[in-house]
Amino acid sequence: MSQFLWQNRDDREYVYPFNPRPECLAMIQRPPAVALDIGCGSGGVGHALRQRFAQCELWGCELDPSAAQLARQHFDHVVEQDVESVDFAALGLKRPFDLVCLFDVLEHLVNPWQLLHGLQRIVAADAQVLVSLPNVSNIALLYDALHGHWRYRSWGLLDFTHLRFFSDFDARKMFYQTGYRVLDHRMNLLGEGKAIFQRHGDECFPSALSIGDMTVKVESQEHLRRLCTDQNLYLLTPHHGHLDSEEERALASADYPDVYAFGGDR
Hints:
Layout: H1 22-25, E1 34-38, H2 44-52, E2 57-61, H3 65-71, E3 77-79, E4 97-103, H4 112-119, E5 123-134, H5 139-146, H6 168-177, E6 180-188, H7 192-200, E7 207-211, E8 214-218, H8 221-228, E9 231-238, H9 246-252
């Protein structure tokens, strides 16, 4: 047995939980006709979609062969290939996808912006795109970081295989810059953040929230919920360059607020 998380990573068998992600699928606004689940694992989402939308044509994309084999029980087609290189038409796709699921996938990619931008070649003009992303501005994670700890784990906010990290703001910038608008946003509280919210959610705001030796000014219950969120969940659709407000235009721009962290853009 390996002592360290980083040892023998390529030799370890990854166990894919059968997770139907009901909190994400609850955001679907209309029945899909052709759906694609990218990183479909062992098929939990496909199973749930089949139960809800029996006539929907289901496609999955999964690189792990053992997981893909399990997923074939729940999808009409499972492709063991990088989605960016798949010729779906050659595999029998007759019309663009009107539902795409990206559940805890983008943070594992070197360039998730490129994937999102490239998806527009295979999605319908009014497609529903569901995304789940870990929240790097989670207060428990920030507490650990302020105390000098950024501990990678086998799963969770600091999964060893995560390459990219997003707050809600940075996720929205990515979506708008790559051609999507946010139709719905929900927050999933799972770990210590959920316990913190349950303890302090009914307090009067603004308030000073103390966690150990760290104190944070919290402006509202909504602010506290955002700080306690483990996963940000989004429903997106292509915006085709039509931006309806100053806020949307700002999100789609290359402009960012000033930050304190050392670094530059050129």
